[in-house]
Amino acid sequence: MAEIQIRNVAKTFGAYRALRDINLTIADQEFMVLLGASGCGKTTLLRIVAGLETATTGEVWIGGRRVDHLPPKDRGIAMVFQNYAVFPHLTVFENIGFGLRMQKLPETEVRLRVERCATLMHIEQLLKRYSGELSGGQRQRVAVARALAMEPDVILMDEPLSNLDALLRLEMRAELKGVLAESRTTAIYVTHDQVEAMSLADRISVMYQGRIVQAATPIEVYRNPGTEFVAGFIGNPPMNFLSAEPLGQGKWRVAGQEVTGPVIADPLKFAIRPEDLVPGDAGLPATARIVEPLGAHLLVTCDVDGSMFRAVLDSDLKVSPGDRLTLTPQSDRIRWFDPETTRAVA
User: Fold this and answer.
1) What pLDDT shows up at residue 160?
2) 327 within 8 A of 278, measured Cβ to Cβ
3) Model pLDDT for residues 275-315, shown as the tens digit of each residue
4) Does a cis peptide bond (omega within 30 degrees of 0) precede residue 237?
5) Angstrom distance (rounded) from CA 112 to CA 108
6) In terms of Cα–Cα distance, which of 142, 125, 150 is closest to 90?
7) How far is it, in rounded angstroms, from Cα 269 to Cα 151?
8) 232 Cβ partners below 8 Å, 6+ apart?
9) Are residues 156 and 224 in the same domain?
10) Which of 180, 204, 233 represents a domain boundary (last residue)?
11) For residue 11, is it within any domain?
12) What torsion do the CA atoms of 30, 31, 35, 41 make, to the nearest 10 degrees?
C-alpha cells in the first residue's frame, strides 16, 4: 500500500507563505495531479513530499509510515524532472539501470528490470544509444523508465512534458497514463496545463495562493467548480460570469432577462460555460465582436450587458462581427457563486 497523507503542511520562505495548511490524502495507485498557475505552491508541495524541501509545519505519511524526517532515498519514491536529468555519458541501458546499480542489485536483476521498463516505454531498441543521439521525447521516456525501474511506492513528476512539442505531449500523455496504471504506482503529477490535468488525473487538486481550493475528479472540477477561481481557471475558454440581481422566489435578473436559480436574497454571480450556450429565441441578448473559426466550432466573443462573454457555437452558423444574437443557457449547466466568498452556492 502506498497511500500518501499530507497533514497540515505549511511552508514559509521568510515572510512569504508558500503553502497554507495543506491537507490531502492520495489513495494507493491513484494518479493525483496538482494543478495551478505559476507561484501557487504546487512544486513546493511536491518537493516536500519528495524530501527535497522541508515543511515549516505538518507531516507527510507514505504507506502508513511518517517520512517527513527521512532523506529522499529512504522514502520509497522516484522523481521525474522537467529537464529529464538523463546522464549524457551513459547509454540508455546504463541510465535506466543507474539507480539499481547504486543499490548493488545483482546484474541479472538489473538487466531484467531495465529491459522490462524499456519495453513499457517503447525504447527497447535504443538501449545501446547515448542520450545525445536521442530526441526530447525519447529522453523523457528514458527518465520515466529509470524512475519505474526502481519499483518505487510513489512516483513524483514535475511538469515532465512541458519541454515537448504539442504532438509529442499528446503521445506521451497517453503512454504515461497506461504505463502507470500497469505499474500500479501511486503518482503525483505537477502541471499548469489543464489539458494534461484533465486527461491524466484520477483526481485533480487545484491550487491557488498556497492552498488546495478543490480536490475532485476531472469531470467534477469541470462541471461543478467549487470556487469562482476554479470556474475561471478550468476550461478553455473559461466560464462566463455576469452579475445576478435577486427578484425573489428563485428568480434572478441576468443581463435584463429573468433566469431561474437558487432561493437566496443576496446578489450572486451567474456563470455558464461557453459550450453550454445555444442560439435561440429567448435568452441573453448578445452582440458578436470577434468570430474565430475552430474547425467544427466557432468561438464567438460577444458583448453581453457590457461584459465580455464567449460562446462556442456550431460552425454551420453564419455569424459575423456586429451581429445580434440571443444565447440560451442550458439550465442544468448554470452555476452560481457568492461574490463575497467566491464560493459556489449551486
Assistant:
1) 85
2) yes
3) 999 998 889 999 999 999 998 999 999 999 999 999 999 98
4) yes
5) 6
6) 142
7) 49
8) 238, 239, 241
9) yes
10) 233
11) yes
12) 70
Cα dihedral across residues 272, 275, 276, 277: positive or negative: positive
Looking at the fold, whether 195 and 270 belong to one and the same domain comes out as no
What the block records as the C-alpha cell of 43 is 512544486
Same domain, 120 and 138: yes
For residues 48 and 11, the answer to whether their CB atoms sit within 8 Å is: yes
Domain count, the chain: 2
Residue that is written with C-alpha cell 435578473 in the block: 253
In a domain, 147, yes or no: yes
How many residues in the chain? 346
Q: Range of 318's domain?
A: 240-337
Angle between helices 107-120 and 166-183 (to 10 degrees): 130
What pLDDT was estimated at residue 1?
Answer: 63
- Tell me which residues of the chain have a pLDDT lower than 50: none
Among 233, 260, 292, identify where a domain stops: 233
Beta strand 186-191 with 31-35: parallel, antiparallel or unpaired?
Answer: parallel
Q: Could you tell me if 128 and 142 are in contact, meaning their C-beta atoms sit under 8 angstroms apart?
A: no
Q: Report the alpha-carbon distance of residue 184 to residue 154 in Å, rounded.
A: 10
Considering the domain boundaries, does residue 327 fall inside one?
yes
Instruction: Verify that 265 and 179 share a domain, yes or no.
Output: no
